[in-house]
């Protein structure tokens, strides 16, 4: 009996050991399967990153790549600077999708000369002897004219304006000398006129012409102006227009909706920072049509304290991309934070690029749904906010509900680290902000107004590369603000800057409202 009991115990012990080993082996198998799945996901993610890197380096610089749906073109400013601006609209509805494709514009050919340009007539007359009939010598009668036009350019001319202030005195009483007052100047201690300052500022900040090239151009015209002198003028001009910038800021922060964005800037000489450390240029845009304000601000940081400083106690709607640095000011001020469908769409464009060629997938479906949202916006263009809100309730809400149902289903089917997974999770995380446009007809679908405003700065940065000092960066921000605000209101940047530089020195702070572009828009050529 004892032997049988001992044998039974030994068998039971062996069974337990075998069972434990089997459980350990099964656990190892599960661990290996998990590791293999992780390795496969990592491999797929690295492959997609490699494909996207190749696309960015060697592929077309456009988000329309492989989007055969006449989709809208919406690019980051950093991407869009190498290509022509695309149309931000889309096909409006299903009927528009089935319509014939638009005709292509003819390339080349003679361009019609603008009728508003001044004309100088040059009359070409026959010689006197040729204005008589060869048979009987009778004088010929003019029966008409043949007119052709050519575009003529008068090169820039540099000249010196001499301000002669005459003095007067009484020969008998010797009561003192009287002299005509000196004209007010933006930079009193310089010999730069308002016209010259406006010319230099427009060339650099609007046309992206670096100061050293401008110095060379002036030298060819006989005026030797060193680059550091031009730079000093721009810094001083930026400081002098600060009161006008403050006036524009007050107008901006009274708007019900503000767009914000930021981009990098290198500043070489900044205290306690390396020259290679990235700094940032922030942009804000807002205001009703015809009274738009675009403001640039320099800061060494991208932290949440910067929007807190720039927005103050603003409590309206704020449209941004997905950057979380705006969260603090949104929470502190009770701001309505609005997302950007252009950025959400961009993630799916990247996911589409790594799909196998010739195949469609979830990214295509999402892009098509977003295209339809923009189609509704194209129909709503020009409508009052109430009518736009009603149209969105009728058409956009159904598209959003379909997209939400699809998103919930797709999140569980796609690897989170894949390009498509990143696009889905971005859409899911930004969903409350992205759907706020359904609540108010004033709220736009994207942050393109801010991206379009910051694009000229990015273009210029590719030419002049960096700022030497923080004061130079701040001056650039001020002048960019005036130029882009003028453009947003349909004004010539050069004419606006010239008027501001001429008028500002003689104004009090209470009169600065007269320099707002919409106060005297009709007085300037558009």
Provide a quick synopsis of the model.
Residues 131-174 form the Transposase IS66 zinc-finger binding domain. The protein is of the alpha/beta class and 526 residues long.
Keywords summarizing the entry:
alpha/beta; 47% helix; single chain; two-stranded antiparallel sheet; 5-stranded mixed sheet; elongated; 17 helices; 526 residues
Task: Report the major sheet.
Answer: 5 strands, mixed
Q: Strands across the major sheet, in which order?
A: 5-4-3-6-7
Distance between the termini: 113 Å
Beta-strand percentage range: 5-15%
Shape: elongated
Low-confidence stretches: 64-100
Overall helicity: 40-55%
Q: Can you describe what's shown?
A:
- Mean pLDDT is 82; it is low at 64-100.
- Helix 4 (194-206) crosses helix 16 and helix 10 packs antiparallel against helix 13 (419-429).
- Strand 6, helix 9 (327-333) and strand 7 (336-338) form a beta-alpha-beta unit.
- Helix content is 47%, strand content 7%.
- It has a five-stranded mixed beta sheet with strand order 5-4-3-6-7. The chain has a two-stranded antiparallel ribbon with strand order 1-2.
- The protein is α/β, with parallel strands linked by helices.
- The protein has a domain at 342-438.
- This is IS66 family transposase.
- It comes from Vreelandella sedimenti.
- InterPro entries: IS66_C, Transposase-related, Transposase_IS66_central, Transposase_TnpC_homeodom, Znf_dom_IS66.
- Residues 1-12 have a biased composition (Polar residues).
């Amino acid at each position: 009996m004892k032997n049988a009991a001992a044998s039974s115990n030994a068998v039971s012990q062996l069974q337990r050991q075998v069972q434990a080993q089997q459980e350990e082996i099964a656990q190892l198998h599960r661990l290996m399967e998990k590791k293999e799945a992780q390795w496969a996901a990592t491999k797929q993610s690295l492959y997609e990153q490699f494909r996207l890197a190749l696309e960015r380096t060697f592929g077309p610089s456009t988000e329309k790549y492989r989007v055969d749906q006449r989709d809208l073109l919406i690019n980051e400013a950093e991407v869009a600077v190498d290509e022509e601006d695309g149309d931000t609209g889309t096909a409006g509805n299903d009927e528009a999708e089935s319509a014939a494709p638009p005709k292509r514009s003819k390339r080349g050919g003679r361009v019609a000369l603008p009728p508003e340009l001044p004309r100088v007539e040059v009359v070409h007359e026959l010689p006197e002897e040729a204005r008589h009939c060869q048979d009987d010598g009778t004088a010929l009668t003019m029966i008409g004219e043949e007119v052709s036009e050519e575009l003529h350019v008068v090169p820039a001319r540099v000249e010196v304006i001499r301000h002669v202030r005459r003095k007067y005195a009484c020969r008998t009483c010797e009561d003192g000398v009287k002299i005509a007052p000196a004209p007010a100047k933006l930079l009193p201690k310089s010999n730069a006129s308002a016209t010259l300052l406006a010319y230099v500022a427009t060339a650099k900040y609007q046309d992206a012409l670096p100061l050293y090239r401008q110095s060379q151009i002036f030298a060819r015209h006989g005026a030797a102006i060193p680059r550091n002198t031009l730079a000093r003028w721009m810094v001083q001009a930026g400081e002098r227009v600060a009161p006008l910038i403050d006036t524009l800021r007050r107008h901006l922060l009274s708007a019900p909706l503000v767009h914000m964005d930021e981009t990098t800037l290198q500043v070489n000489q900044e205290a306690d920072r390396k020259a290679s450390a990235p700094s940032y240029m922030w942009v804000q845009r807002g205001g009703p049509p015809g009274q738009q304000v675009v403001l640039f601000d320099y800061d060494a940081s991208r932290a949440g304290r910067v929007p807190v400083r720039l927005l103050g106690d603003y409590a309206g709607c704020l449209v941004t991309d997905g950057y979380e640095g705006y969260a603090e000011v949104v929470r502190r001020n009770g701001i309505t934070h609005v997302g950007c469908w252009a950025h959400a769409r961009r993630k799916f464009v990247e996911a589409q690029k790594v799909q196998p060629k010739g195949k469609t997938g979830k990214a295509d479906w999402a892009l098509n749904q977003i295209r339809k949202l923009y189609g509704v916006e194209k129909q709503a263009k020009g409508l009052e906010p109430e009518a736009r809100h009603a149209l969105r309730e009728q058409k956009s809400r159904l598209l959003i509900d379909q997209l939400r149902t699809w998103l919930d289903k797709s999140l569980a089917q796609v690897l989170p680290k894949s390009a498509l997974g990143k696009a889905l999770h971005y859409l899911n995380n930004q969903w409350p902000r992205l759907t706020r446009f359904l609540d108010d007809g004033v709220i736009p679908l994207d942050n393109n107004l801010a991206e379009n405003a910051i694009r000229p700065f990015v273009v210029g940065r590719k030419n002049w590369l960096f700022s030497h000092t923080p004061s130079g960066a701040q001056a650039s921000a001020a002048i960019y603000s005036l130029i882009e605000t003028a453009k947003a209101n349909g004004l010539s940047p050069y004419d606006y800057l010239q008027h501001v530089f001429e008028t500002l020195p003689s104004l009090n702070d209470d009169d600065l409202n007269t320099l707002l572009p919409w106060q005297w828009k009709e007085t300037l050529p558009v």
